[in-house]
Amino acid sequence: MAPDMIPPAGAVAFLAGHGWGGATILPLAGDASFRRYFRIVDGERRAVLMDAPPPHEDPRPFIAIAEWLCERGFAAPKIHGIDLAQGLVLLEDFGDDRMREAVDADPARETMLYETAIDILIALHAEDAVAAAPYDHAVLRREADLLVEWYCPAIGIEADLASYHAAWDAVFDLALPSRPVTVLRDYHAENLMLTANGLGLLDFQDALAGHAAYDLVSLLQDARRDVSPALEVAMLDYYRARAAAEPDFDRAYHVLGAQRNAKIIGIFTRLWQRDGKPRYPTLCPRVWRYLDRDLAHPALAPVAAWFDATIPADKRGDPMVIAAA
């Protein structure tokens, strides 16, 4: 077992205290945070152990959102046990069948699975928003800043933060909803699991109350798999035909798309430079393609002008490759 996937010291006692004494602990996954996941096997029974070690991680938001979703009929993992002091949470196991692999293995299922994912968002947006912090101007700006804080220095560009803020400030009001909804924030094909009860939800602990378009961006401008422009358009049409979309929904979608993709490029660069995870910057060329697509929308003219003046086309890609050139 890799050293970074050795179970936490308190795992055996924690499991025994929740009826899983003697169960086998198998490494399942790590992610871009300090969280790790282990599969717990006891005969025919299966569960997942989340290791969210304090002080780096706090599992309480995950637990609260999971319970909120389950109470409303959404397929979030049921909670079987909690130890906040150790950051251990025992969860329902949704298995290994992710939407990502299902679509890649059988492209004929793509439209149906994406429609199912959007049906979940339609139902979620019909609910009053979870009691969470607002996805407001300050949060949008702080996240967008990650691009100039990490990506620009990595490729040798000294960006002017004041003009960057001014460009975004000219468009962020378009991304503020009249009626906030629950925004899960990482709603994409690798966080949607095929279960007997439909698509199961993962990685929603950072949920905020914001614009309905955000999770559609997360799904349809997926940093981890290519989503064709044709599918993106078809799924947006599907959503609009079935949901009470905000006025100027299309403009908000592209503003949030540009903001999210700028944030992701910054985060993926940080994961490489600060955290030693070189897989992530290799995903940046795809994210840049989405970002360029969003910047082409007329509503993004001020932001597009900043990018054109600051980051030329040959500097938009994998920061590891660009930095080494």
Beta-strand content? 5-15%
Q: What general outline do the C-alpha atoms trace? A: globular
Mean pLDDT equals 95
Largest sheet: 5 strands, antiparallel
Q: What distance separates the N and C termini? A: 36 Å
* Tally of helical segments: 12
Low-confidence regions: none
- The oligomeric state is single chain
Q: How many strand elements? A: 9
**What strand line-up does the widest sheet have?**
1-2-3-5-4
Radius of gyration: 20 Å
Describe what this molecule looks like in 3D:
The protein is α+β, with helices and mostly antiparallel strands. It contains 12 helices and 9 strands. The protein has helices at 11-17, 60-71, 99-105, 110-126, 137-154, 161-169, 213-220, 229-242, 249-273, 284-295, 301-310, 319-324, and strands at 24-30, 36-42, 45-51, 79-83, 88-92, 181-183, 192-195, 198-201, 208-210. Strands 1-2-3-5-4 form a 5-stranded antiparallel β-sheet, with helices on both faces. α7 crosses α9 (249-273). The radius of gyration is 20 Å and the shape is globular. The two termini are 36 Å apart. The model has no long low-confidence stretch (mean pLDDT 95).
Architecture blueprint of SSEs:
Blueprint: H1 11-17, E1 24-30, E2 36-42, E3 45-51, H2 60-71, E4 79-83, E5 88-92, H3 99-105, H4 110-126, H5 137-154, H6 161-169, E6 181-183, E7 192-195, E8 198-201, E9 208-210, H7 213-220, H8 229-242, H9 249-273, H10 284-295, H11 301-310, H12 319-324
Can you describe this structure in just a few lines?
With 325 residues, the protein is an alpha+beta fold. Helix content is 45%, strand content 14%.
